[in-house]
Amino acid sequence: MKQKRLTCFLVLSFVIFSLFGCSGDVANTTFEQTNEIIFETTSVEATMMEPESILPETENSTIYDTEEETTTSPEPVFQELTVHFIDVGQGDCTLIICGDETMLIDAGDNNQGTKIQNYLQHEGISKLKYVVCTHPDADHIGGMDVILYKFDCETIFMTDEEKDTATYRDVIDTLENKIYKKTLPVVGEQYRLGDAEFTILAPSQMREDSNNNSVALMMTHGKNTFLFTGDAEEDEESDIVKLDLPAGIDVYKTGHHGSKSSSSEELLNAITPKYAVISCGEGNKYGHPHAQTLNNFRMMGIQVFRTDEQGTIVASSNGKEITWNCSPSTSWIAGEPVGTKEESSEPAPESEATQQTETQAAIDVPPTVVEETNPPASVTYICNMNTKKFHYPICSSVDQMKETNKLEVNLSRDEVIAQGYVPCKRCNP
Ligand SMILES: [Zn+2]
Ligand SMILES: [Zn+2]
User: Fold this and answer.
1) Strand partners, 362
2) CA–CA separation, 41 vs 51, rounded Å?
3) Which ligand is nearest to the Cα of residue 140, counting in written order?
4) Burial degree of 141 (CB within 10 A; 0-12, 13-18, 19+)
5) What is the CA(371)–ligand 1 centre distance, in A?
6) Centre of ligand 2 from the C-alpha of residue 210, in Å
7) For residues 133 and 156, is the Cβ–Cβ distance under 8 A?
8) Cβ distance 299 to 273 under 8 Å?
9) What protein residues have CB closer than 5 angstroms to ion ligand 1?
């Protein structure tokens, strides 16, 4: 029996061997197929690498993306992220929407609260997952009391910096009335907004001036990145640069309204932005944006959007590309500073004016236009005890006034004048 089986096996083996041995075609086909399979495996691996190659940027958002539907396709599909640089005149207000989740960074000046409220409601927003008060200057938190009051706000980022102004107190009072707690921004902490995420970048230390204590953050949505720095100036920008941000930020929300004290070359060289958005008021007295800033942007080939020329600007990200609701500005017109930084409506100091003409961007500077914003319904005048001038609270001069000189009154115009104050020539109270 054993021998029979062995013979059978040998015969079979021989037949099989002869078949393969004699038929070169079969052998070749097998060889080719083997190679093909290996090649195919490699090619599958190669395509699999594509999503992996963007993983460093999307890894976290993918991991934290628990609530939203995930797709099985190798290409990650992102919800739309829209960033609305709302035109609030001289000030800042950025609304970010990703999926169902929303975030507001700053809320313009005191007279902008209702306008922002309307904008948000028009977008169908009733609650804000995150609210960021970058710093307590009026052109950033002025309308925030309205927003905190009207919307359900989940996490409210604010530093510990206090400011002795009615604007600041209004915000704090509203926080207390609504039993909201503020969240201290901690550098390096990450938060998710839809399938985007953001990282707190600053402040890492508290300085004397408010602007350099601005909350700064980077929003990442797939391959797209957005940087928001509030009014951070060179000192704080330098702290941010030390964090080794990824080069090639897509959208840089220009610090301090395009002032030359911000957007330092150090920062620009570190982040090499593709786009810069400047939020400032038409004809603002500070001369924002500054010619030097515009020149730097121009030299670096950065496309510029500005709310003073284009109104509200909306950037949309699909995780790969960014599209805009308008074309970039091509005017390269710098703002014209009027009045000194101190508050008067005197002509700009020589040095400022000289710097303006020295830089090439300041071509065709438009005539100074006093921004005719409607004063708030319940007017509280702001008096400058030093210059003896009085202003509407929305006057751009107020933001630059020394706190020690500032006096807020709830009097009629005649009563203020009776106290020896003269109306500001800028806001004509
Ligand atoms: Zn500021
Ligand atoms: Zn500001």
Assistant:
1) none
2) 17
3) 2
4) buried
5) 19
6) 10
7) yes
8) no
9) 137, 211, 231
Instruction: Give the separation between CA 184 and CA 356, rounded to whole angstroms.
Output: 39
SS3 428: coil
Taking the complete model, does pTM exceed 0.70, yes or no? no
Please list the alpha-helical segments (H only) found in 67-186: 113-122, 138-141, 144-150, 166-177
Q: How far is the CA of 277 from the centre of ligand 2 (A)?
A: 14
CA of 105 to the centre of ligand 2 (A): 12
pLDDT of 4 reads 47
User: How many C-beta atoms lie closer than 10 Å to residue 249's C-beta?
Assistant: 24
Residue 216 vs residue 347, higher pLDDT = 216
Q: Locate 422 and state its tokens.
A: 């003269």
Ligand 2 mean position, distance from CA 231 (Å): 5
Q: Could you tell me the CATH superfamily of domain 81-324?
A: Ribonuclease Z/Hydroxyacylglutathione hydrolase-like (3.60.15.10)
Q: Contact, 92 vs 139, CB < 8 A?
A: yes
Cα–Cα distance between 290 and 200 in angstroms, integer?
Answer: 27
Q: What is the DSSP letter of 211?
A: G
Mean pLDDT across 366-381: 47
Tokens of 337: 């500073």
Nearest in space to 103 (alpha carbons), one of 194, 42, 238 = 194
Question: Of 130, 83, 87, 76, whose CA–CA distance to 109 is shortest?
Answer: 87
Q: Tokens 């963007």 — which residue?
A: 54
Q: Around ion ligand 2, which residues have CB less than 5 A away?
A: 139, 231
> Tokens 């096996």 label which residue?
9
CA–centroid distance, 259 to ligand 2, in Å, is: 9
Residue 426 has a pLDDT of: 73
Please report, for the chain, the start and end positions of each structural domain, with discontinuous segments joined by +: 81-324, 374-423
48 CA to centre of ligand 1 in angstroms: 47
**Distance (Å, rounded) from C-alpha 93 to C-alpha 91?**
7
- How many residues would you count in the chain? 429
Q: What confidence tier does 410 reach under pLDDT thresholds 50, 70, 90?
A: confident
Average model confidence (pLDDT) across the chain = 80
Q: Which of 246, 362, 258 is nearest to 304 (CA)?
A: 258
Residue 272 has pLDDT above 90, yes or no: yes
